[in-house]
Records
---
Amino acid sequence: FLPDPGEGPSKSEREAGFYKFHFYTTLSDDSKILGVVTGDKDPGYGSTSKMIAESAVCLVLNPELASGGIWTSAPAMGSALIERLQANAGLTFAVEAE
């Protein structure tokens, strides 16, 4: 079912890859929101490595954002991480009301 080691996308496929995710939700006041996240590389190979690297840099530069306990990246670094991802990792984030 899964590819064997070495059977992943080629370098040109990784470089040409991209993605666009749509997230729909209903808020407590019954309004609806659409969130859109895009990336400029293959999501499994190109984009993930950039997200991990930018998360590490963000945490080193802003250690107070996760000052104790166990955190995942979004709650710990929030808008600081989003800004880094948009500036350095080829991601975009948008929120649209429906």
---
Amino acid sequence: MDAPFLFMSFSRILLCLDGEPHTETACACALDLARTHQAALDALYVVDPYLKKFTHEIYAANRDECRAHLDRSLAAEGEAALDRFCASAQEAGLNVGRLLQHGEPDAVIPQLATAGGYDLIVLGGKRFSGRYERWTSRDLPGRLDGKFAVPVLLCRV
């Protein structure tokens, strides 16, 4: 952990997770920081409607059923990711809050961070091997850059 975090004090930490392997480091860092600073920690999963845009191209009679199924599936993925993180937090002796929100992550996360009074945002990210990979990834940390008035800890692996 970098030295600046040792001299700062945090009371409310927001962990943004997506259930992907690249966020595991962010989860571990958030747990360590919450324990070290005796801070409240909330885990957030945002159900991103990005995939739903492709269902507009479905002209079948049961398009609405397909969209509803996709909504349920994405929410279930979020709940499962939150369940896994909360279980690991409980094993570490920490109680964490769980938040499941729907919307564009680059809009929802800054709004929630401000409304919740968080003083640190923790998120994970993938390393990119080239421009094409960055361009096709939708790079959430890049889209969030500059949208917070508080420190952001980005754990890229």
